[in-house]
Design goal:
alpha+beta, SH3 type barrels, Alpha-Beta Plaits, five-stranded antiparallel beta sheet, three-stranded antiparallel beta sheet, 8 strands, about 15% strand, elongated
């Protein structure tokens, strides 16, 4: 009991040295506990061979390295002998660090679970409609939850300051998180948050959808809370406000399915044999790896005083294959007409009349 009375009687530089030593011992103890816990967790994760266990252990390591030492420091905080003008801000600093570590821990857990879930759905496959829908929903929902965690963490940090505690309390008051989101939506710069939620629910666009936006052909590369990134065919990126897809018309080529109909237009003289062109197109399609074998056809869709318009119709599994198939059939049909019916290429006829002198 004498040593306890001696500790309680420490003041001045002796109390400061004692407090610093206690803090170092607590932090070191937390690091030892961290090493033991994660050594055991890593061995258990290897035995289970579960991707969930491995992913979560990997994600938890970073925040736990700060989380566990801060717990031990906060436990011994009442025994510190620093002067009041040092002890109060120091305790506040440790509390802020603890709040940030908890928020980091929750966010990493959320990201680990989302990565594991998304890994089960491959958006690179041809029939990827469900995969793209899942990726879109999970990505946007994760970002919304991260924002909510950040708001709550900010409110908790504000409540550690006496002068601004009412601000933190008001953020978590009766209005709740829903009230926060609605309040943010009143601001034009943050109103897109509700648009992001609506995108998740209605899904007018999904990750990897093929779209025509502002006259540009591209794929949806990212869907964020306030903007969408469209990867243009020539590798440029078009950044569009997320509200654009709720307020303006645009083309979505993969809204229901990825397969598309491709068309090729030929302009020939009236002397060409349409039936022969039809037979040649069928033969060419059967030898093409881009054709999915579902749809094909040849029709005369227009006729002018000089040429007739022949439309070749064919189907492909996705937009990329449709583009390649269209170019391939156009080149080969033109080559066929040039070689087989050169006289049937478009031409300008003129009749000259006059008397010889």
């Amino acid at each position: 009991m004498n040593w306890m009375r001696e500790i309680n009687g420490l003041t001045g530089w002796e109390g400061n040295v004692y407090s610093i030593g206690i803090i170092l011992i607590a932090a070191f103890t937390g690091l030892i506990v961290y090493w033991i816990v994660f050594h055991m967790l890593a061995r258990l994760a290897e035995k289970t061979e579960s991707l969930l266990d491995i992913e979560l252990v990997k994600r938890w390591k970073g925040p736990a390295r700060f989380f566990l030492p801060l717990i031990f420091i906060l436990l011994i905080a009442p025994t510190l002998k620093f002067p009041a003008e040092v002890l109060v801000p120091l305790h506040q600093l440790f509390s802020i660090g603890f709040i940030l570590a908890v928020a980091w821990f929750l966010i990493n857990t959320l990201l680990g679970l989302s990565d594991l879930l998304l890994s089960r759905y491959d958006v690179e496959s041809h029939d990827n409609l469900k995969a793209r829908a899942i990726h879109t929903q999970i990505n946007v929902l994760v970002k919304i939850i991260v924002v909510i965690i950040a708001v709550i963490a900010t409110a908790c940090i504000l409540m550690t300051f006496e002068m601004v505690r009412q601000i933190g309390v008001s953020l978590l008051a009766s209005a709740g998180i829903a009230g926060i989101i609605v309040g943010f939506a009143a601001q034009r710069s943050l109103g897109a948050l509700l648009a992001g939620i609506q995108i998740v629910l209605t899904q007018p666009i999904r990750i990897d959808d093929v779209v025509i936006v502002e006259g540009e052909w591209g794929r949806i590369e990212e869907i964020n809370l306030t903007y969408v990134v469209v990867r243009i065919w020539d590798m440029r990126r078009l950044v569009v406000p997320i509200t654009y897809f709720l307020e303006k018309p645009f083309q979505n080529w993969t809204r229901v399915s990825a397969d598309l109909l491709a068309t090729v237009f030929l302009y020939t003289d009236y002397t060409v044999s349409v039936e022969t062109v039809r037979e040649e197109l069928h033969r060419l399609l059967q030898g093409s790896s881009e054709w999915d074998g579902k749809v094909w056809g040849v029709q005369v869709t227009n006729a002018t005083d000089r040429t007739m318009e022949i439309r070749a119709l064919m189907s492909a599994a996705d937009s990329g294959a449709a583009w390649n198939l269209r170019c391939e059939m156009r080149e080969k049909l033109i080559d066929f007409i040039q070689k087989k019916y050169p006289e049937s290429l478009p031409r300008l006829r003129a009749e000259m009349t006059g008397e010889r002198q």
